[in-house]
Amino acid sequence: MIVAGFLLLAVGLADVLRGFLRGRAFWIGAGIAAAVLLALSVLGDAAPFALLGIALAALWTWLLPLEGRPRLSFWPAVLLALIAVGGVALLPARTSAGLLSGAPLPTPIGRVGFDLAVLAVGVFAVLLETGNVIVRAALLGEKAELPADVEPGQAPPAEAVHGLVPARALDPGVPTAPTPSLHASAPDSGFRGGRLIGPLERVIVLLLTLFAAYPLLAAMLAAKGIVRFPEISRDGAHGGRAEYFLVGSLVSWVVALGGALLLWWATHTG
To answer: Can you tell me where the transmembrane regions are (predicted)?
Structure first.
């Protein structure tokens, strides 16, 4: 469990930092985050797991850059999920080791062990910017295209792509035009809340799933489809808007539901 926890926490922190920091500021932030993780792991007698998580997080950022096409397409996300599941399945929570791992930690929902607490924070971190990175890799891997009626510089369906570059502008052989970058909004695009909607949506799905509020979960997902229906109904012959909405939304929901399943599994096997 502790392997999955530090891996997810390191990857989540790396994506949050590179999502908001650039150049020297990113490296300084990454160094501070790595030092904090190592200090935490020493207190929990889990330094090797933290070092492994930091190394894999560095590999993650190289395989899935924020600009351009991801290396190895969507497969790094699949590998991350397999390692996380394997860490929970094969390495249950430790009962005693270090200064923190043997003592339950106070939380709003009761006292939990150190390993489970790290896993929970790691899952939450992945739901933020890492979820956006995974959705982007899925969209670009499937070469989802916007319909022809979306003009250059116009923002694509916000929560469907979570603030991403239109895939058609990256496909070889397709004429390109100036499009919004991953981290900048076009002057005429208005408010683009996709980058914020995605993480909020995943956190809500996670919480509703963990608390077994399935009617509320179904209502929220249905409401999203209703809100996006007017835009999707204007789709052209190629179905680009519906494709973006379905691929982006389904991948985002799978990330959130996978995190909920991981926490549920860890709770019942620890």
So the answer is: 24-42, 49-66, 72-91, 112-135, 203-223, 244-266
d(CA 76, CA 70): 9
The rounded distance, in Å, linking the Cα atoms of 160 and 252 is 9
Q: Is 22 left (phi over 0), alpha (psi -120 to 50) or beta?
A: beta
Range of the domain at 23: 1-270
CA distances from 6 to 44, 160, 227 (A): 11, 29, 37
Q: Are 19 and 66 in contact (CB under 8 A)?
A: yes
Q: Residue 54 has which token pair?
A: 């930091």
Residue 154 contacts residue 38 (beta carbons within 8 Å): no
Segment (H or E) for 90: helix 75-90
Q: Which residues contact 254 (CB under 8 A, 6 or more apart)?
A: none
How far is it, in rounded angstroms, from Cα 159 to Cα 55?
A: 31
Which residues sit opposite 110 in a β-bridge?
A: 107
One digit per residue, pLDDT tens: the chain, 270 residues?
A: 889 999 999 999 999 999 899 889 999 999 999 999 999 888 888 899 999 999 999 999 999 998 888 888 889 999 999 999 998 888 776 665 555 555 565 555 556 778 888 999 999 999 999 999 999 888 887 665 544 444 333 334 444 444 444 444 444 444 444 433 434 333 334 445 667 888 999 999 999 998 888 899 899 888 887 877 776 676 655 556 777 778 888 899 999 999 999 998 888 775
- SS3 call for 85: helix
To the question of pTM greater than 0.85 for the whole model, the response is no
